[in-house]
Amino acid sequence: EAGVVQSPRYKIIEKKQPVAFWCNPISGHNTLYWYRQNLGQGPELLIRYENEEAVDDSQLPKDRFSAERLKGVDSTLKIQPAELGDSAVYLCASSSPTLAGGDTDTQYFGPGTRLTVL
Amino acid sequence: QKEVEQNSGPLSVPEGAIASLNCTYSDRGSQSFFWYRQYSGKSPELIMFIYSNGDKEDGRFTAQLNKASQYVSLLIRDSQPSDSATYLCAVNRGSTLGRLYFGRGTQLTVWP
Fold first, then answer.
1. B17 to chain A, closest Cα gap in Å
2. pLDDT of residue B1
3. Which contacts (CB < 8 Å, 24+ apart) does range B78-82 have?
């Protein structure tokens, strides 16, 4: 079974430039997450999708960040314009309710996109 | 107070020893708990999850949960150099199912 796919793996841009990240979740996973991980820190949630609907975007800096998940499969996260402080690893994860039917949604992470803003 | 706190580390143990990683969380209503392993430059990889008080064993790994003390731990028996990584504790709060709150991780080094 293929895992979560992300691209690009690395991106270097100058501040004020736009950038976009793409994610393809595990087949059949209806929940998709975007996290940001700063160096030496744990991942922090930016946005969570249930199918096409963004159900938790409270931590997404909406002045410069946007995301979409058309057709409830692939997702794109965009930053415009990028700032120096946006340098981080952007992780996409997906999940599906466990076979036991519990509330525990085990999240599987993609390889991430390492963004450097100069 | 942070949502999830982990012992600061780094933790260094010899090969074959038991490594003990600890995590506390602030929300008493938290329902499920995860341990992820993250190698340098890689993404987090799920090791175990636990949601009932007590111990849960999987091979060399044992997760322990004490909800009364708001404490979760991971024991790694017979530690191997390949276990050297950062271990992230993550908590799924009951009020926001789906969102994981991560600690900053504990770096473990197993030396031969």
1. 26
2. 63
3. B78/B16, B78/B18, B79/B13, B79/B14, B79/B15, B79/B16, B79/B17, B79/B18, B79/B19, B79/B108, B79/B110, B80/B15, B80/B110, B81/B15, B81/B110, B81/B111, B81/B112, B82/B110
